[in-house]
């Protein structure tokens, strides 16, 4: 593989390299949210306001925010998880079939990320792999091996806090939802959007007595397989563990 692959990516996704997008060609828009697929159960999440989040000054949240890799044994409450999911991908408004307006910015309001949650210690929630259905503010439990947490640690290069955290968020890019409008340049925006989402997790975690740690070091094939992404049309783009502060 060329050592200049990153430079080639940046050069080939410049605006002058872009042809007309599928949107410009009049092709139909993809769905605003991926279907849940085969699920074991669905639950409605409590209202995010039920988390009793600390009324935290933004400057204080920014100053206190650090990457935390060691967590207390205390679980997250379901209301706290609901709050964190709302702050990172919550849908404030659905504009027909055109767009969703959410709690984070996204290029063209495409919001081409899906959130998976590895629940390790969440009160009232079975341990395992869940997917956040943002438009309905629900969680869907997915079929996963009994050792899914151990497999997630392996996929994340042996970083054990993926399992010791109360929950680990895995963000998966739905590629065509973004490239339909922006073509190959949309790949840039997928990664930018993941950064917006993860920063909101860091800041909102501070309000509920938690800390988070972002993870970009992972085996793509193993992590994609764990969440059922094919690695081409959908791929894992970012991971973050979160748990109560010691």
Give, in order, the helices and strands: HEHHEEEEEHHEHHEHE
Helix/strand/pairing class, anyone?
A: alpha+beta
- Quickly give the CATH architecture: 3-Layer(aba) Sandwich
Shape: globular
Strand content: 15-25%
Low-confidence spans: none
Number of structural units classed as domains: 1
* Estimated helix fraction: 25-40%
CATH class: Alpha Beta
Give Rg in angstroms: 18 Å
> Would you give the CATH topology?
NADH Oxidase
CATH superfamily, by name, is NADH Oxidase
Number of helices: 8
Structure explained in plain terms:
There is one protein chain. The chain is an alpha+beta fold and 246 residues long. The protein has a single domain (39-244), classed as NADH Oxidase (3-Layer(aba) Sandwich). The protein has eight helices and nine strands. The protein has helices spanning 5-12, 58-64, 78-89, 148-155, 161-164, 175-182, 186-207, 220-227; strands at residues 39-44, 91-95, 99-102, 113-119, 128-133, 138-142, 167-174, 210-215, 234-244. A seven-stranded antiparallel sheet has the order 1-6-5-4-7-9-8, sandwiched between helices. Helix 3 (78-89) runs antiparallel to helix 7. The protein is globular and about 50 Å long. The protein starts with a helix and ends with a strand. The model has no long low-confidence stretch (mean pLDDT 96).
Short description:
This protein is of the alpha+beta class and 246 residues long. It has helices at residues 5-12, 58-64, 78-89, 148-155, 161-164, 175-182, 186-207, 220-227; strands at 39-44, 91-95, 99-102, 113-119, 128-133, 138-142, 167-174, 210-215, 234-244.
């Amino acid at each position: 593989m060329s050592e200049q692959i990153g430079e080639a990516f940046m050069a080939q996704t410049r605006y002058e390299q872009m042809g007309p997008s599928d949107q410009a060609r009049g092709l139909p828009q993809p769905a605003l949210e991926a279907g849940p697929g085969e699920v074991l159960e669905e639950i409605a999440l409590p209202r995010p306001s039920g988390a009793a989040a600390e009324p935290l000054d933004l400057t204080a949240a920014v100053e206190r925010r650090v990457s935390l890799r060691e967590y207390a044994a205390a679980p997250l409450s379901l209301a706290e998880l609901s709050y964190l999911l709302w702050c990172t991908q919550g849908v404030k408004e659905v504009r027909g079939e055109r767009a969703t307006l959410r709690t984070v910015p996204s290029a063209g309001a495409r919001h081409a990320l899906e959130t998976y949650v590895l629940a390790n210690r969440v009160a009232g929630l079975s341990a395992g792999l869940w997917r956040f259905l943002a438009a309905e503010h629900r969680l869907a439990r997915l079929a996963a091996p009994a050792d899914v947490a151990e497999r997630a640690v392996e996929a994340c290069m042996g970083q054990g806090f993926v399992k010791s955290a109360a929950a680990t968020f895995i963000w998966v890019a739905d590629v065509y939802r973004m490239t339909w409008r922006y073509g190959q340049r949309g790949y840039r925006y997928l990664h930018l959007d993941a950064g917006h989402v993860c920063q909101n997790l860091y800041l909102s975690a501070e309000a509920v007595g938690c800390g988070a740690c972002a993870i970009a070091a992972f085996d793509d094939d193993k992590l994609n397989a764990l969440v059922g992404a094919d690695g081409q049309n959908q791929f894992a783009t970012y991971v973050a563990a979160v748990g109560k502060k010691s």
